[in-house]
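Response to reviewer comment R2.3. The reviewers asked that we include at least one raw input/output pair. We reproduce the pair for Homocysteine S-methyltransferase-like isoform X2 here without editing.
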Amino acid sequence: MCACRKAVLLDGGFSTQLVENVGEEVDGHPLWSARYLASHPKAVMQTHLDFLRAGAEVTITNTYQASIGGFKEHLGLSEEESLRLMRRAVELAKEAVDIYMKENPSCKVRPLIAGSVGPYGASLHDGSEYRGEYADTVSRQTLADWHRPRIETLVAAGVDLLALETIPAQKEAEVLVELIKDFPRVRAWISFSSKDYHQISHGELLRDVAHECWSRNSNQLVAVGVNCLNPKYVTSLFSRINEEGRPHIPLIVYPNSGEVYSPKTGWTDPDNVASVDSYVDEWLSLGVEYVGGCCRTNAEDIRRMRGHVDRWLKEGTFTGPMGIVSTNSSCITNSVGCH
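Raw output as returned:
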C-alpha cells in the first residue's frame, strides 16, 4: 500500500486579486465582489485563471456574498435572475479551468471548483461574520431556509464540492452540515472565522465545534478548519483537534494576511504582518492537508505557497485534491503534475 502525503493548494482572496482585473477598489459595497458577476464577468473568470496559473488546485466560486435578497436589493434582479447569476459564477470558474487545462495538456488532474457558501452574517453588511451574535436570535430554520437556494443552485450547476466558509458560530455550522445531507452526493469542507488562539468568533472552542460537525456528517465533510483569520492563531487553534483518542479530522486553513479589518476603515496595519507563505511549512508539519489564502492574499502569495507545498510533497507522494478525483489507490506524485 502507498503511504501518501497530502497537501492540496487552494486559491487566495478573490476580491484582492479581482482588483487587478477590474482596476478599482472592490471593498465597501454590500455585495462585495459578487456584484462583478453582473458587471465584469470576464474579470471574474480571469481572477480564477490567475490563481490557477499561480498553482492553485482548487478555485472557489465568487458567491461568498451572493444571495437572492442581496441581488434583489442591490442589483434589482428577480429571484430567478439571482439564481441565474449564481449559476453564472460556476460557469465562469469552469471556463477558467477549461482554459487552464488547454494551456497545460500534461496535467494529470483537473483543478476542482468549490462553491462558496458564506455565512448568513455576510448578508448583514456589518462584519457579523466575524462576531456571530446573530446566531443568538436567528432560528435554525431561518438559517437553513436562507442557505438552501444558493447551495441547491451551486450543486445543480456542477461544482465539485462546497466551501462552507467563514462560519462564526456553532449553531450555523450545525445547520449547514445537516442541510447538505439533502444533497447526499456533494462533499464539502467547513471552515470558521476565529477571534483568538482557541475560539471561533462566537466564542465556542474550535476543537469542540470541529468534532461536533465531524460527528454529525463525516460522510460528506472532507475537512474542517478556519479561514479569514490572523495566521498567527492557526497552530494553537489546531493543536488539540487531533489529539490521541479522538477521531482524526482532515484540517484546512486559508487565512487572511494578518491585517486588521474594520467595516468602517477597511484593512489596516499592513506593515506589521509576516508573509502568509512563511507559515505554510509549520502548518503542513502540523498535519494540515488543505492550505490557501483568503482576504488580502493574491496570486503571487499563492505562487509562493506553491513552492512550499511542492517542497513538502517531494518528501512523500500525493493522493489528489480532496481525495475525490482519483479512481484507484495509487498516488499521483508531486501534486497534479502541472506546476
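DSSP finds eleven helices and ten strands in the chain. The radius of gyration is 18 Å. Further pairs are available on request from the corresponding author.
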